[in-house]
Amino acid sequence: MGHFYGHGRNHLFVPGPTNIPEEVIRAMNRNNENHRSPVITALTKTLLDDIKKIFKTTSGIPFLIPTTGTGAWESALTNTCSPGDRIVSFLIGQFSFLWIEQQKQLNFNVDVVESEWGQGADLDILASKIASDKTHTIKALCIVHNETTTGVTNDLTKVRKILDEFNHPALVIVDAVSSIGALDFRMDEWGVDVVVTSSQKALSLPTGMGIVCAGPKAIEASKSAKSLRAFFNWNGYLKCYKSETYWPYTPSIHLLYGLRAALDLIFEEGYENVILRHNRLAKATRLAVEAWGLKNCCQKEECYSASVTAVVVPPNIDSGEIVIKAWKKYNLSLGVGLNKVAGKVFRIGHIGHLNELQLLGCLAGVEMTLKDVGYPVKLGSGVAAASAYLQNNTPFIPSRI
Ligand SMILES: Cc1ncc(COP(=O)(O)O)c(C=O)c1O
Does the chain have fewer CB atoms within 10 Å around its N or its C terminus? Predict the structure, then answer.
């Protein structure tokens, strides 16, 4: 096609799809195989066992579905809820908005709790709704753990606390699309009933695998839920799990090998180290944003996201111009502002297969682009703030100690 990709590598700093490690690319560089062979059966078994470690669950049942995060949402909803069910859903950004739209299309009775974009889910309103719901009309809560639009992370322990306080049986359904594999996530400890994620985020795989993990209460609910579902019916998977054939339809062989390699890398680095790395890169990014004199779209420190930072630009600057200039001139891919914050924020995704020096390259590119669009930034200011922090806080690579 004669498409010139630029010298060196593209600095991919969107909050998904993310950079794919060479090991994962190599693991996927292979022919197709019979998905009914003992080799794929054995591989699948290891994946189902190991993915549970990423969700921190022993009682949850994972489904690796050929879909995206949007399909994983639908799988979670249609297997657990019935048309007309009251669902409390928090609207805090574009992804919670899209999920709510899907909930409405699936004919649930969606009770939307809206917050200003940049704020977390309003859990005071949740508490009052739960307190007054004596007859348990609320069947489920839908909450996005990490809202990728605004870089806001919700504290799920508080959600569980509210439900427990009132002994309320509502299912907790969580979108962890931009958090699983990057942020600490404890499905069992936090009492989450269904968690969804997708392959192209922190797991650093190509798009195409939606991952749903269902706890015992959700599996029980799936037996009586009346929503229409066919492709996404968990029953198909559960039957295949029983007979150890695993696949109700053809999986992407390549993504299975890719997931194996991705999980191996996570465990080699140490899952807790992966989470610490994400925290470190996020903190360094925030220090750079502060040094540039710009604001974080996330308005509360306790909600700062470890996987994405949305940076608010001054009103005279269009953030879309920053994103396109950074790509055209510096081969740096940043995330655009979406919906309500279009033109107002750009996003730095520090999620997945990234390290400190890559981040500094990204921050240098952002600084130069800010100058390009007329923002009076001192070149090097953000990089200096971030590198001072990283120099003090970056540990040795675990395998090189
Ligand atoms: C938090 C969140 N949920 C859901 C989605 C939708 O996932 P997908 O694009 O894989 O359907 C995204 C995508 O960016 C996301 O960030």
Answer: N
Ligand 1 atom nearest residue 176's Cα: 1
Q: Within 13 Å of residue 49, how many CA atoms lie on the same side as its CB? A: 7
Q: Using an 8 Å Cβ cutoff, are 244 and 41 in contact?
A: yes
Q: Is the dihedral of CA 203, 208, 213, 218 positive or negative?
A: positive
Q: Is residue 273 within 8 Å of 287, Cβ to Cβ?
A: no
Q: Measured from the CB, is residue 17 less than 6 Å from ligand 1? A: no
Q: Which residues of the chain carry a pLDDT beneath 50? A: none
Pairing of β 209-214 and β 194-198: antiparallel
Q: Which residue has the tokens 């995704």?
A: 349
User: Nearest-CA neighbor of 66 among 191, 186, 187, 198?
Assistant: 198
Sheet of 345-349: strand order equals: 295-296, 308-312, 345-349
74 CB near ligand 1 (under 6 Å) = no
Q: Which amino acid is at 117?
A: W
Domains 11-18+270-400 and 22-267 share a fold: no
> By C-alpha distance, which of 278, 122, 315 is closest to 203?
278
- From the candidate CATH numbers 3.40.50.970, 3.10.310.40, 3.90.226.10, 3.40.640.10, the one assigned to the domain spanning 22-267: 3.40.640.10
Residues 6 or more apart whose CB falls under 8 angstroms from that of 126 comprise 88, 90, 113, 141, 159, 162
- For ligand 1, whether the C-beta of 178 sits within 6 Å is yes
Second CATH level (architecture) for the domain 11-18+270-400: Alpha-Beta Complex (3.90)
